[in-house]
Amino acid sequence: MELFSGITYQSTRGGQIGIPASQAILQGLAKDGGLFMPNRIPTLDISLEQLGAMSYQETAYEVMKLFFTDYTEEELRSCIGKAYDEKFDTEEIAPLAKVGKDYFLELFHGSTIAFKDMALSILPYLLTMAAEKNQVEQEIVILTATSGDTGKAAMAGFADVPGTRIIVFYPEGGVSRFQELQMRTQKGKNTAVVAIHGNFDDAQTGVKRLFRDEEFQAEMAKKGFRFSSANSINIGRLVPQIVYYVYAYTRLLASGELTAGEEINVVVPTGNFGNILAAYFAKQMGLPIKKLICASNDNKVLYDFFATGSYDRNREFILTSSPSMDILISSNLERLIYVSTGCDAEKTGKLMMELNEKGCYTITPEMKEKLKDFWGGFADQEENRGEIKRVFDNYGYLMDTHTGVASAVYRKYVEASDDPTKSVIASTASPYKFSKSVMEAIGGNIEGKEDFQLIDEMSARSGISIPQAVEEIRHGKIRHSRKCDVDGMKAEVRDILE
Question: Which of 3, 127, 259, 347 is 20–30 Å from 182 (CA)?
């Protein structure tokens, strides 16, 4: 079988270079703590008009084949076919909804009704295929931190996949009640969920520490386990996210909403930065994107970064109604920093060391100039609520609290720039995941009501049928109840595996 050739991967901190895609996916995080980046961003080798006639699955192949060059065509098509199937409740996989003049890219039609399904449906197949290709005999253990959605989507993807186990850490009290129930009711003999006493950044830092703990990894390797990651730091998660931006543009082109070569803006509610970084990669591949609008909530560390060139996580951590964005350490930003240095691993490593030791760093004016494709904005909770109500009242379109942030920030962008460019807003979760906050926003009475009562009222008021994923949680049995302190994460992993 013919192998595609060309792209290899290297750490943003210089410790590893020339790594094939399958090995980068298996490792997740580079050994020096850096993130894997392709040695170049490939350009699309098929026209956008041709892509416009293709299904989501065919588009996925045309994008992924350019990055995952040590997978055969047969292997890659097999992974794609298993990932994007009847788990999604729409044939388009990622449909576009026109709301007024704007387009909402609905990324929540998978089995856990959040955008993480788009990449985490395929990662288990890419990973197990990578293990096979590299003669890995150990059981693969996925270690993941979640701010709400990644955990459930990862567990759903890996549940009962042979040769794998998955352990998810989430901040107790730092996710919505519905998100917590999604995780705690997850089936699968190979799944485990642990609530930590801390916030998401604590959970994420703890997981990264486990990946850097060579002694612990060696101990577990002797017992037949090999660690990997399902967080967006894994290049096997980032690349599949590029696909839906390419797909969205080509749908608009095919339907006559865009003319050939016409630019769009892309608006993304942003926490860990992977979702908007995928749009940046799509632009580098040749997609006509004008501006990448990075929307933050009250935890506006990214907004401040794009405004000033200084990244500073030394600030109050605010719990909001958009919990998947309640993040002060945006891991994937390291990849963009690496690009802005001209792919200088030494410079990138120094900045990341400053972040680790001081909690802040500042980029040079030359680096900031390379980030001019991005525009940062933020919306507080009141603005978010107001935007959800405005769009629902005016158009009958109901969005969740993360998409509400994106929509509110986009309106600020238009007011500031007077830019008439057509825009695609990433709609990252179903409103049913955040029923209490959404119903409150549109004027519902939430006093003393449980989530599922509000879900029923939301369905009656909006006319949107309740997703199957919600009904499964309604009747689900609690299967996971582990808790630990941040410094107890290693012991918890050891206990689960043994």
Answer: 127
Q: Look up residue 189 and give its amino acid.
A: K
For residue 479 the two structure tokens come to: 């299967």
The alpha-helical segments, DSSP class H, found in 213-254 are 214-222, 235-254
Report the alpha-carbon distance of residue 144 to residue 207 in Å, rounded: 7
Give me the residue label for tokens 């797909």: 247
For residue 231 the two structure tokens come to 């967080």
Regions of the chain where pLDDT drops below 70: 1-5
- Tell which phi-psi region holds residue 79, choosing left (phi > 0), alpha (psi between -120 and 50) or beta: alpha
Would you tell me which CATH number, out of the four given (3.40.50.1100, 3.40.30.10, 3.40.50.300, 3.30.70.1560), belongs to the domain 96-113+236-466? 3.40.50.1100
Task: Determine the pLDDT at residue 229.
Answer: 83
Angle at 228 between CA 297 and CA 172, to 5 degrees: 40
3 state SS of 114: strand
Write down the domain spans for the chain.
Answer: 96-113+236-466
Identify the DSSP state of 497. Answer: H
In the block, tokens 């595609």 appear at 4
User: HSE-up of 51 (CA within 13 Å, CB side)?
Assistant: 26
Tell me the per-residue pLDDT of 360-370, one tens digit each, with 9 for 90 and over: 999 999 999 99
Residue 111 CA to residue 157 CA, distance in Å, equals: 9
